[in-house]
Amino acid sequence: MGEGIRVPLGETGLSIFPLMLGAAEFGWSIDQHTSSAILDRYVEFGGNAVHTADGFSGGRSEHIIGQWLRARGLRDRISLGVRIGSHADNPGLGSVNLVRAVEGSLTRLAVDCIDVVYLDATLDSSSVLEDTLATVEWLRDAGKIRSVGAFRFPAERLVEARILASAGYPRIEVVDEPYNLVRRRGFEGDLRLVAGAQNLAVTPSHALEHGFLSGQHRSKSAAVGVRGEQMKGNLNRRGIRVLRVLDRVAAELSVPVAAVSIAWLLAQRTVVAPIVNAFAPQHVEELMQGAGVSLLRSQVAELTRAGD
């Protein structure tokens, strides 16, 4: 199994491959066997960072990863990121539910400790941050988690978290916000400024916008199902313009379109490792090529302009 590139994940002390393998499809559209094959390929190409959530397939995604880690004996070599707060049994970030949710994830993953717990604010914007971080401190002191990330935290909540950190509470060090060439508004602005000012590591999810930015889906007739509906929303003048520039840059560099989309993200300040979902083992290599692609400044600018 190969050793890949490693970059520091902000100030967590973790060193990871600059692309996290997302497990959103595990146990939903992908079975145990295919999921394991995807994980095997990712590690074979030098990957070492896996991302899941307690709400993915009702916990089935975590269960699949746990079985794979145990079967391969790789726990010590994999950096495990888990988004907590969306499981139906323990939703939100209230103290009691947060402890129960982390315990549930540890059980399903069959591990003693989670490397990065991403606090998911999607269902919970009302919990008192001070209470949440006090609970995180207890979980960390108990050896159940190593470091803290945030998902869908607005900029002002990250500022509040940093003020609390200066008073001794655990520090948020990683941020996940959906971000890509066609989904720009949520991250570009206050969130990016705060991430830069606080030296946060950004690990953006939806890096390929449900597969649209891999260039695989170019007609509304080819877009079917739930993902198809999401794709159709991007098959407009702006989306087609982005695909055209992606095609040109991919041809110039002789790499897949998906690799260029990922390389554009990695060229953005504060972005450390996009979270990317794979649907089949043969897709893993083209995704991981993105970590080795160096775009010219003019190519980055052209891609950015196309998505404006």
Could you describe the 3D structure shown?
It is built from eleven helices and ten strands. With 308 residues, it is α/β, with parallel strands linked by helices. The protein has a single domain, classed as TIM Barrel. The strands form two sheets. It has an eight-stranded parallel sheet, with helices on one face. The longest helix has 17 residues. The N and C termini lie far apart (40 Å). The mean pLDDT is 94.
Strand residue content: 5-15%
Order of adjacent strands in the largest pleated sheet: 9-8-7-6-5-4-3-10
Unreliable residue runs = none
> Fraction of residues in helices?
40-55%
How many distinct helices?
Answer: 11
- Measured on Cα atoms, how large is the radius of gyration? 19 Å
Q: Class in CATH?
A: Alpha Beta
Oligomeric form: single chain
Number of DSSP strand runs: 10
Order of helices and strands: EEEHEHEHEHEHEHEHHHEHH
Largest sheet: 8 strands, parallel
Q: Which structural class best describes the helix and strand composition?
A: alpha/beta
For the record, the count of structural domains works out to 1
CATH architecture: Alpha-Beta Barrel
The termini sit apart by: 40 Å
Shape: globular
The CATH superfamily appears as NADP-dependent oxidoreductase domain
CATH topology: TIM Barrel
Q: What is the arithmetic mean of pLDDT?
A: 94
Pfam families: Aldo_ket_red
Domain NADP-dependent oxidoreductase: 18-305
Protein name: Aldo/keto reductase
